[in-house]
Write a structure and sequence with these properties.
This protein is of the alpha+beta class. The protein folds into two domains: 156 residues, Immunoglobulin-like (Sandwich); 147 residues, C8orf32 fold (Roll), CATH 3.10.620.30. It is built from six helices and 19 strands. The strands form six sheets. Strands 5-8-3-19 form a four-stranded antiparallel β-sheet, covered by helices on one side. Strands 6-7-4-18 form a four-stranded antiparallel β-sheet, covered by helices on one side. The chain has a four-stranded antiparallel β-sheet with strand order 14-13-12-15.
Length: 328
């Protein structure tokens, strides 16, 4: 039985990779140029390969617990990231499936069997991640701002507000009207937005999470506020932008087109002094986007969840999320 479940995980994984690749094309996720290649889009650095463990471990504390269902984010393929399932640690009776969200994020959905008091059940995958750094395009002056009216449907989502990103607020709109107004080229306009954010919000590690307007008032924030403010100003100027989430960090992407109307996503580090258009991160990408609706709630980041019925006289499930380099 355990072998059959393991085979099913591999099959689901392979199917989801194919769906993600097709969905990325439909969502306008253009490729990037390998290092040294004279091509369009962001420049990819050399590949760096690492293995990561992702998943969930549940312990029944104080007595037995009933059947539970958990969900946690797992990496997926992007032009700068390729993901391969190379191992899995599944306790007997554990069933794993995968759910894609808008082809920009996915979660492993785990059904845990009843657990005796003091025992634990595991659903942990080992992934081989090939990750590349991102650099600016070789000819940034060739890119132009997209016409918001002509954008495909999936991209229009990245023009409106989302949790903690108040792009329609009058203060954000006023700032967007000022920033980059003296720049003729699209790349220079977006660079001006990044410079403005770095000037107005000083980095403070582990700052309390706030929205953009409050961050502008306080003048401080961490990667969350700096990223959200950059995205909000971009959206207020009609430039699609979105959040990229990696373990313990986030950074923004923005969308420009070439003269033929082909679109490309470019990344930058709003929360550091890295050169504009460069991201040197090697941690796996967990999510792109920041407006996920689950039932009646909308989330900036997909939540990690564990739900189930309370057994009378039973214990409490203790959840440990796993997202770490393999071997640690």
């Amino acid at each position: 039985m355990r072998t059959a479940l393991a085979i099913m995980v591999w099959i689901f994984w392979a199917c989801l990779l194919g769906q993600a690749a097709r969905g990325a094309e439909q969502a306008g996720t253009a490729g990037a140029a390998p290092a040294g290649a004279a091509s369009a889009g962001p420049t990819l650095g050399p590949p760096q390969t690492a293995r990561w463990r992702v998943g969930m471990i549940v312990t029944a504390a104080g007595g037995p617990v009933a059947r539970m269902t958990g969900a946690t984010s797992v990496p997926m393929d992007w032009p700068e990231q390729q993901v391969k399932l190379v191992g899995q640690d599944l306790s007997p009776g554990v069933a794993v499936n995968f759910k894609a969200y808008k082809n920009t994020a996915r979660q492993m959905v785990v059904v845990f069997p009843p657990v005796a008091g003091g025992r634990e059940v595991r659903a942990v995958l080992t992934l081989e991640i090939v990750r590349r750094s991102l650099g600016p395009p070789q000819q940034p002056e060739r890119y132009v701002l997209p016409d918001p009216k002509k954008l495909p449907g999936p991209l229009k989502e990245y023009l409106g507000p989302s949790p903690y990103i108040e792009s329609s607020h009058p203060r954000v709109k006023a700032l967007a009207g000022e920033v980059g107004a003296d720049q003729a080229k699209a790349w220079d306009k977006v660079r001006a937005i990044c410079d403005c954010v770095r000037q107005k919000i000083h980095y403070q590690k582990d700052a309390p999470l706030t929205g953009v307007v409050e961050a502008l008032d306080k003048g401080t924030g961490d990667c969350n506020q700096l990223t959200s403010t950059f995205i909000a100003i971009c959206r207020a100027k009609g430039i699609p932008a979105r959040t990229v989430r990696i373990p313990g960090h986030c950074y923004p992407e923005f969308y420009l087109e070439d003269a033929a109307g082909q679109g490309y996503w470019f990344a930058c580090e709003a929360a550091s002094d890295q050169a504009f258009g460069s991201v040197q991160q090697q941690k796996p990408i967990l999510q792109k986007g920041d407006n996920f609706r689950l039932k009646t709630e909308t989330y900036r980041f997909l939540p990690e969840t564990l739900t189930g019925l309370q057994r009378p006289g039973g214990g409490q499930p203790q959840l440990k999320l796993v997202c770490e380099p393999a071997g640690e």
